[in-house]
Amino acid sequence: MKKVFGLLTAVGLMTAPLAHASTVTVSGSTSVAHVMEVLAENYQNTTNTNVEVQSTGSSAGIRAAKDGTSMIGMSSRNVKESELNSSTKEIVIARDGIAAAVNKANPVKNLTQEQISKIYRGEIKNWKEVGGEARPIVVVTRENGSGTRGAFEEIMKLQRTINGHKVTAISPTAQVGNGNGMIKTIVANNPYAIGYISLGSVDDSLRAIDVNGIAATEKNIVAGDYQIARPFIVLMDKQAPKNANDFINYILSKDGQSIVAAEGYIPVQ
């Protein structure tokens, strides 16, 4: 099903609500899309309702929900009031941690939030400064507009204000990867790289390091001990079609939330 979703284009999605009113269109955060595609597939199998999911990034998903080019938008960061209008509603469907991930060959097992921030600011440049090998750190970040990047910057205090506007404090020398998948590939193939990805996307190709001595686990996020965490949000118009509301109700149901848990995220129900 993911291959089918991957064939969708932004232009096609913009016309989908008009051309196929019976189809539920969903677009936005690549992190939320990871679980949304599974939810959509299961929902289609049980209801015979077509659901199309496209990974376009949180900012694009928020805009799509606001201007009506998508029935449902997805965001993996908090939404600013300026990005909404009076008819847009937000619904939290799950919670997720953001894992600071390194290559499995990297001996560093733990970093403080301050150390991670300094690495991303370019103030710590070599692994030997944090207990690793005497090799330069390859810093990997997400693209602009990524909800994961927005949440990571906010939590890790990686923003600065210039002329009244918030801008990133991440070093301009950092490599940029579009989506969790690309970040994983870069880190998994470079023993000196560090990146950040959705906790639900962590697999055996890399390793999530402890932060402030706390492991990145669901238990620690629920307890409030692991601090790098964010909500998974969907946005839709208050007058959205019934089929879109029915899909959201399914996501929030016992069956939908069991899928959220099975995919490695934290249910909200």
Automatic annotation (TrEMBL):
It is found in: Periplasm; Secreted. Residues 21-254 form the PBP domain. The keyword Thylakoid does not apply. Residues 1-21 form the signal peptide. The keyword Calcium does not apply. Keywords: Periplasm, Phosphate transport, Secreted, Signal, Transport. Pfam families: PBP_like_2. InterPro entries: PBP_domain, Phos-bd, Phosphate_ABC_transporter. It comes from the Bacteria. Its main location: periplasm. Involved in the system for phosphate transport across the cytoplasmic membrane. Belongs to the PstS family. This is Phosphate-binding protein.
